[in-house]
TrEMBL record:
Modification sites for Pyruvic acid (Ser): 66
Keyword terms of this UniProt record: Autocatalytic cleavage, Decarboxylase, Lyase, Polyamine biosynthesis, Pyruvate, S-adenosyl-L-methionine, Schiff base, Spermidine biosynthesis, Zymogen
Active site: 66, 80, 240, 254
Signal peptide: none
Reactions catalysed according to its record: S-adenosyl-L-methionine + H(+) = S-adenosyl 3-(methylsulfanyl)propylamine + CO2
Lineage of producing organism: Eukaryota, Viridiplantae, Streptophyta, Embryophyta, Tracheophyta
The keyword Nucleotide-binding is assigned to this record: no
Protein name per the record: adenosylmethionine decarboxylase
Pathway(s) this gene product operates in, as recorded in its UniProt entry: Amine and polyamine biosynthesis; S-adenosylmethioninamine biosynthesis; S-adenosylmethioninamine from S-adenosyl-L-methionine: step 1/1
InterPro entries the UniProt entry points to: AdoMetDC-like, S-AdoMet_decarboxylase_euk, S-AdoMet_deCO2ase_core, S-AdoMet_deCO2ase_CS
Cofactor: pyruvate
Positions of substrate binding: 6, 65, 234, 258
Length: 418
């Protein structure tokens, strides 16, 4: 791994507002914010707008570091690098108040940074982020929960913080249009495919023109056929795309192709009433575009049917599920975090493991397989009985009404593969 480089893993913030006047629900709401106001918010984050597109439902902006989506009563900001995303909360609350909007829920998510020591305040640690969120959010968001969802692969945990007022605490599973969100993080991209996200030496094309070429060359344009795409290519490398799929749905892709810390993300929003076979097809196309060695998928939804399709779509492509954890959050529903690696990838176990150890372990695997069956039968039976008893003890989830940020930040995530 490189000592330093561009941080591909994004931070994602989603804020939902409720209008003081119900008529605002059918109006423009947050979309009334002028460009100067949006620039003020992004200046606090330390990024800028490079391209934009919109439809009747929302506006989508490609940023110098990822994306911004503005709906009448919802805003989503996703930024990579060393941006200070959480510093956008206070100016956004200020502008929303002047539009007659009150914050009713907040969700913050991110993966594990590749270069954590390069992150500025308040992103130096998840605990610092939670403290900053606690201090920035209004008191009406009294139901709060922070959790680090673990992973068997080193440095691939999923960090989640949500907060909600009482009225929006629970999402109704049978609402007319319940949405789900897939957040996919991919590392160790195929080197040949990653080279497609580099601009050629001497190429003087604009970011918009080069971005369109990359969209076609890589096959990204075929992931969600028919979507309205706003893309941008960075100099000398890197790529971002926002796609308006249908109505208020979107997808977004961001690529950091440098060898040693290559990374790509794909985010997709859909409805649980859509054909779930489409989800499987989208995932297959994403894997074919990037061919990552490691892939993590976070599914936020009230239904279990979506995340169960993830493994079914990825396993035939040579991706093996290494871990799967689930947790429940206020105003978000269930969050399921799954990690996959290519079947040829060896997981490094222990801080002292090296490449020679891993090769030796790979060669000796058949012998260890035989020896494992020579263990005492009673020992193996006792282990199975303990696992069954553990499964029976899993009960429903609960969240605390007020988070104690002075305690260690751990959640009640359950590992479904243990």
């Amino acid at each position: 791994m490189a000592v330093s480089g561009f941080e591909g893993f994004e931070k994602r913030l989603e804020l939902h507002f409720f209008p003081d006047d119900p008529a605002v629900l059918t109006g423009m709401g947050l979309r009334q914010l002028d460009f100067e106001s949006l620039e003020q918010v992004l200046r606090a984050v330390q990024c800028t707008v490079v391209s934009a597109v919109g439809n009747h439902y929302f506006d989508a902006y490609v940023l110098s570091e990822s994306s911004l989506f503005v709906y009448p009563t919802k805003i989503i900001i996703k930024t990579c690098g060393t941006t200070q995303l959480l510093k956008s909360i206070r100016p956004l609350l200020h502008y929303a108040c002047h539009l007659g909007l009150t914050l009713c829920s907040c969700r913050y998510t991110r993966g594990s940074f590749i270069f954590p020591l390069a992150q500025p305040f308040p992103h130096t640690s998840f605990k610092e982020e939670v403290i900053y969120l606690e201090e920035s959010l209004p008191s009406n968001l009294c139901y709060r929960k922070a959790s680090v969802m673990p992973c068997k692969i080193p440095s691939h945990s999923w960090h989640v913080f949500t907060a909600s007022d009482e009225a929006h605490l629970v999402i109704t599973p049978h609402a007319p249009d319940v949405l789900y969100t897939l957040e996919i993080c991919m590392t160790e991209l195929d080197r040949v495919l990653a080279r497609k996200f580099f601009k050629r030496p001497g190429d003087e094309k604009t970011g918009d023109t080069a971005g369109k070429e990359m969209t076609e060359l890589t096959g990204i344009g075929h992931i969600n056929p028919g979507s309205l795409i706003c893309d941008f290519a960075f100099d000398p490398c890197g790529y971002s795309m926002n796609g308006i799929i249908d109505g208020d749905r979107y997808s977004t892709i961001h690529v950091t192709p440098e060898d040693g810390y290559s990374y790509a993300s794909f985010e997709f929003v859909g409805s649980i009433y859509d054909d779930l076979d489409d989800v499987a097809q989208v995932l297959k196309k994403v894997v074919q575009v990037f061919r990552p060695a490691t892939m993590s998928v976070s599914t936020t939804c009230t239904s279990h049917e979506v995340w169960t399709r993830v493994g079914g779509a990825l396993e035939p492509l040579g991706m093996k599920c290494r871990s799967c954890t689930v947790d429940e959050f206020p105003a978000a529903g269930n969050v399921v975090f799954q990690t996959f690696t290519t079947r040829r990838k060896k997981i490094k176990v222990g801080a002292n493991a090296n490449s020679r150890d891993m090769r030796r372990a790979d060669v000796c695997r058949p012998f260890r397989f035989i020896l494992s069956y020579q263990k005492d039968k009673k020992t193996r039976k006792r282990k199975r009985d303990m696992e069954k008893a553990k499964a029976k003890r899993i009960k429903g989830f609960k969240w605390e009404k007020k988070l104690d940020v002075n305690r260690e930040i751990i959640g009640s995530s359950k590992n479904l593969l243990d």
